[in-house]
Design a protein that fits this description.
Blueprint: E1 6-9, E2 16-17, H1 19-32, H2 50-58, H3 63-77, E3 86-87, H4 91-100, E4 104-109, H5 113-123, E5 129-134, H6 145-156, E6 163-167, H7 170-178, E7 183-186, E8 203-205, H8 208-216
Parallel strand pairs: 1-4, 1-6, 4-5, 6-7, 7-8
Antiparallel strand pairs: 2-3
Length: 219
Amino acid sequence: MPHYAHVLFDLDGTLVDSAPAILASYRDAFSATAREPVTSIDASIVGPPLLETLQMLAGTEDPGVIDALAGAFKASYDSTGYLQTAAYAGVGELLQALVAGGCTLAIATNKRLHPTQLILEHLGWARHFAAVYALDLFPPRLPDKATMIARLLADRGITREQAVYVGDRSEDGESADANGLPFIAATWGYGSLGSHELAPHWRAATSPAELAKAILDAS
């Protein structure tokens, strides 16, 4: 039996390198709306939800501005941008090994649901996941990742003793903590947590193969 029956994954920076696609579509959004971002569009902005990131980049919470930018981003990303998303080496094998080992897999991501589903289909991974949760899965939009994980656990009848959350950012670990879940940091991603950033009770995996061993090894 696997050490954890249910494995919940973040997506961006954990299973896939989506930074090039996301950054290109943010740049397209500002170009299409003839606005200048107030801060650099670089890999450091990848991870938080779309609307929050656009507010930071635009330097405003004005609904008209943010709605226009969001529409332009979605037009770019949901048509061709997402196709630039690449799987991290070894992740496909990781997912296959976990399913073969008896784990039930789920996604809990800040990314919008539609492009998440497009990416999973594009990479041939959709069949591996029993559930895919995003902040916009339900109306009204869920407020944060911790709430999303709580909803996923409740909906699927998963107890905290059965599950683990895997992500690449401190927000992921904190969201796992909020739900009483163990957390494993995927340190190969662009949000990679250094050893000094890991809470004492968090674990780290430096490769998908190491992560598979940690999850499947029940000893």
